[in-house]
Specification:
Elements: E1 8-13, H1 18-39, H2 59-69, H3 78-86, H4 97-117, E2 119-120, E3 123-124, H5 127-134, E4 138-143, H6 150-156, E5 160-166, H7 170-180, H8 187-193
Antiparallel strand pairs: 1-5, 2-3, 4-5
Helix pairs in contact: 1-3, 2-3, 2-4, 4-8
């Protein structure tokens, strides 16, 4: 009311659950990959593999991670190397320009997936995302290394998100989210997810 000429509002918000989700997912998938490798010689499944196995990385991303990490980080596959990099004390991966340039597109894609696709009871898994989406916001943009604090790196690899509130669509967005769990997001974020 005090500023009637403004009809769009935006936040710069944390993504507190991203790294917890990602590290858990990577650890689980790495264990499944290891179990699959051990079972292969005596398994009649052939190349079908385990039902719940999901490679979070594309073949190109996996190669890039393995190449960038070299011998400095152990791991049997790209997901295990990524897990070890992200769990490193003092966030050592952020101090290597080579690793940062390889990890940025991967982490941005996985963060977009986390915000837009990972749900609990039909709603966004991330508590901050859920709050803003319930209030009619649109997930607008991810911001790389926007929070380089210890907490920011531990919770979200330094990534922060902009939620945009457009006054003419707040009610419609909120209602759509409440009734169907639909998350409204900018096309750029939707394209990030489709890169797999």
């Amino acid at each position: 009311r005090e500023m009637p000429q403004i009809c769009t509002f935006a936040t710069l918000s944390p993504i507190p659950g991203f790294m917890r989700w990602l590290l858990s997912k990577l650890a689980y998938q790495s264990k499944l990959a290891e179990a699959e490798t051990l079972a292969m010689p005596c398994s009649s499944k052939g190349s079908a593999g385990f039902i719940f196995r999901e490679n979070l990385l594309t073949a190109g991303e996996e190669r890039a991670i393995l190449d960038a990490a070299g011998e400095s980080i152990s791991g049997k596959n790209g997901m295990e190397v990524l897990l070890n990099l992200l769990k490193s004390p003092n966030h050592d991966w952020t101090k290597s320009d080579g690793l940062v340039s390889v990890l940025k597109p991967i982490l941005m894609r996985l963060c977009a997936r986390y915000l837009l696709q990972e749900k609990k009871r039909g709603k966004a898994l991330d508590p901050v995302a859920n709050f803003h989406l319930q209030n009619g916001a649109v997930v607008e943009r991810l911001n790389w290394m926007a929070d380089r604090s210890e907490k920011g790196l531990s919770q979200s690899a330094g990534i922060m998100v902009n939620y945009v509130y457009k006054l003419d669509s707040i009610e419609e967005n909120a209602q759509s989210y409440f009734s169907t769990g639909r998350i409204n997001a900018a096309e750029d974020l939707q394209r990030l997810i489709q890169q797999t």
